[in-house]
Write a structure and sequence with these properties.
The complex is a heterodimer. Chain A is 79% helix and 1% strand. The two termini of chain A are 35 Å apart. In chain B, strands 1-2 form a two-stranded antiparallel sheet.
Chain lengths: 327, 350
């Protein structure tokens, strides 16, 4: 007699994810104000990290432009918020509208950058994106001082809870998109580009197009996050908006967590964002020093990140049961 | 009109000398050692800040500081490549790297605890304790866990990205140690500022000295590469590391030497920069970007290319600054984007 077996362990991960999401979604009902603010900034880092890993983790092209897309989102929010009156802004759908516009403008920027650099070797992409943040910062600074006369701008203020729900929505959307991209033809194409780009081109993948599209998609979420975080910070200037640390930290978090699995970057981002919240206000320099040491040690000793180590331990505990599965 | 054109051109040459020197260092690190060193600017910062301290505290002439900072940054770069980058290249842990990382980590923890008043210890005593613990740990790990790891050369593409990411970590570490040591304030000193007239235009003596040193170092390095045995080995390693090794070149030595020389050039450039411009612990990244653009402009890995690219960018920067001072970096970037569209391999790239 055939026994119909169902592998319950397959349900474990989605179950945990669902439980976490329910807790997160209902948090404003019982959580303190501080916990909402804290989670908003942790979720911000998770979004930045996962969207970095979506493109760079699988293709191996290291993007250093996260802060640029983030800043573009911030400025979209600041400029649009100014042009409309306060009565329209009271409508929460309008906030979502601004956030979407911010994401789309970031995607356009990513598309242009990708079209220029992604047909070349990977190092050019890294170089170009590395300076992009400084470029936009300098251009904006020059514009603001020359034409508006002031360096900073004020952004419309909205409630912390609205911001929290919008950012949670962005996170959900990002996770869904990431999941489906990894499962789709595009995900496989990205993997094969990461393994061997020339071979990928030879089996008929339009390499440049895939790269540019996924890069633009990953920028959408960064831009959206920037737009909503601007409303949380209320005052912005080019230095705050185009902070290079917002480029470096997601890279560090993703590598620390491990980029092979989808949940690696999430774990890395949560750990570090929490650490940052604790240490940043008291020890701004030591905390960056610790980050640097951890990044160096991770690259040297944990090439597959924290998740890689955990998987290795599990594989060893299971005693060769999963000996054939990869990683 | 003619004098102002000449003015701008000479100012561009003076700036270009510095750019060329910075870019040559990076070009050497990328072209031979294959490390795309994002922390390049931090070595410049170290050179600049160290010179400032030497001048203001110990009253040491900045020109003598070149002789001090150059070798120190060389040794620093050499050690960093000999331990960390060699590990990344061969995936074989090397004695010393854990000592460095662990000392830094323990020292940071100690500083944090000291700030909370949990520990009361002399700085140097604490550093010594950290060092001893780190060395013991390093020794123990090398005797046990690391013995099972076997050497395997990683692919060039993989090394390119891991080494770049590692240099990020390095950037964080060096920058923050500098912050702890020197603080974030912008500082400068005056040295050799008497004006010199060139064809009717006035320039500070210090800037001319800078240009002279850049050209001198560039030429010296060029002859070192083309005329000496080690130079030949470096060129061989640049064109094909594996074959060079088969021909009897001690490849690890040569790569570490190149990285060290690149760091030394950055350090010396830092000394020269501090003579003309204000310095602070945060200045590194700006020079890294300029170095990267110049290197790409001249052709990745081509040393004469980065020399020419440096002067070209210096003149462009000077022209743009003449009309709109805030837009120099934007102009560099615009040129960089244009270059990637038209001729991605750079002026002298292969």
């Amino acid at each position: 007699m055939n026994k119909i077996s169902f592998n319950y362990s397959k349900l474990l991960l989605p179950g945990i994810l669902l439980a976490i999401l329910v807790v997160l979604a209902t948090l404003p009902l019982y959580g303190s104000n501080y916990s909402i603010v804290l989670l908003t900034s942790i979720i911000m880092y998770v979004i930045l990290t996962v969207s970095w890993a979506l493109f760079s983790g699988s293709t191996g092209y290291i993007s250093l432009a996260t802060a640029a897309f983030f800043g573009v989102g911030i400025y979209t929010s600041a400029i649009l918020g100014r042009t409309f009156t306060a009565s329209i802004l009271a409508n929460e759908y309008f906030v979502v509208f601004i956030v979407i516009i911010g994401g789309l403008i970031s995607a356009c920027l990513a598309f242009i950058v990708g079209a220029i650099t992604l047909r070349l070797r990977g190092i050019y992409f890294a170089i170009f994106t590395f300076g992009l943040v400084e470029l936009i910062k300098n251009l904006l600074l020059w514009y603001e001082v020359k034409f508006t006369g002031t360096r900073g701008r004020f952004v419309v203020v909205i409630g912390n809870e609205t911001i929290y729900y919008v950012i949670l929505g962005i996170l959900l959307l990002l996770l869904l998109v990431t999941y489906f991209i990894r499962r789709s033809r595009y995900g496989l194409a990205l993997e094969s580009i990461g393994e061997h780009e020339e071979a990928a081109a030879h089996i008929g993948i339009n390499v440049t197009m895939v790269k540019v599209i996924i890069f633009a998609i990953s920028a959408v979420f960064v831009g959206m996050t920037g737009s909503i975080m601007a409303m949380r910070w209320t005052y912005i200037d080019p230095y705050i908006s185009f902070d290079p640390n917002l480029t470096f930290l997601p890279v560090l978090m993703a590598i620390f967590g491990g980029t092979r699995q989808m949940y690696g970057p999430i774990i890395g981002a949560v750990v570090f964002a929490y650490l940052e919240e604790i240490l940043l206000t008291r020890f701004p320099y030591y905390y960056m020093l610790i980050f640097g040491i951890v990044l160096a040690a991770t690259i040297l000793y944990l090439p597959n990140g924290l998740v890689g180590v955990v998987q290795k331990i599990i594989a060893r505990l299971a005693g060769g049961k999963h000996a054939h599965s990869r990683g | 009109m003619l004098t102002s054109i000449l003015d701008v051109l000479i100012a561009g040459l003076l700036l270009g000398g510095l750019y060329a020197l910075i870019a040559m260092g990076l070009s050497l690190q990328y072209g031979v050692a294959r490390v795309f060193n994002i922390s390049h600017g931090e070595f410049i910062m170290l050179g600049g800040m160290a010179t400032l301290t030497l001048f203001t505290v110990f009253k040491i002439n900045p020109l003598i500081a070149i002789v001090i900072c150059g070798p120190i940054t060389f040794v620093l770069g050499y050690i960093i490549h000999r331990t960390f980058f060699r590990h990344l290249l061969t995936s074989l842990p090397i004695f010393g790297e854990i000592t460095i990382l662990c000392t830094l980590f323990l020292w940071t923890v100690f500083r944090i605890l000291a700030d909370y008043n949990y520990v009361r210890l002399n700085q140097f005593a604490a550093l010594a304790i950290c060092l001893v613990i780190a060395i013991i740990l390093d020794f123990a790990l090398n005797r046990t866990a690391f013995r099972r790891i076997h050497e395997s050369r990683v692919a060039a593409g993989v090394f390119e990205s891991t080494s770049m990411l590692f240099s990020f970590g390095l950037m964080f570490i060096i920058k923050n140690i500098a912050f702890i040591g020197w603080g974030p304030s912008i500082r400068s000193y005056s040295f050799l500022q008497q004006p010199v007239s060139i064809a009717g235009a006035l320039f500070g003596m210090n800037r001319l000295v800078t240009l002279g040193f850049s050209i001198l170092i560039g030429l010296a390095f060029y002859f070192f590469l083309t005329r000496t045995r080690i130079g030949k080995a470096i060129r061989a390693a640049a064109s094909d590391p594996t074959v060079a090794q088969l021909m009897g070149v001690n490849i690890n030595q040569v790569l570490a030497l190149c990285f060290g020389l690149g760091a030394a050039m950055a350090g010396i450039a830092g000394v020269l920069i501090s003579m003309c411009y204000p310095v602070n612990a945060n200045m590194g990244i700006e020079y890294t970007i300029i170095a990267i653009i110049v290197v790409a402009l001249g052709g990745l890995g081509s040393i004469p290319g980065s020399f020419i690219g440096g002067f070209a960018l210096g003149i462009i920067g000077s022209i743009v600054s003449f009309f709109e001072p805030g837009l120099a970096l934007v102009a560099y970037y615009f040129i960089f984007g244009l270059l990637l569209l038209i001729r991605p391999k750079g002026i002298l790239g292969k």
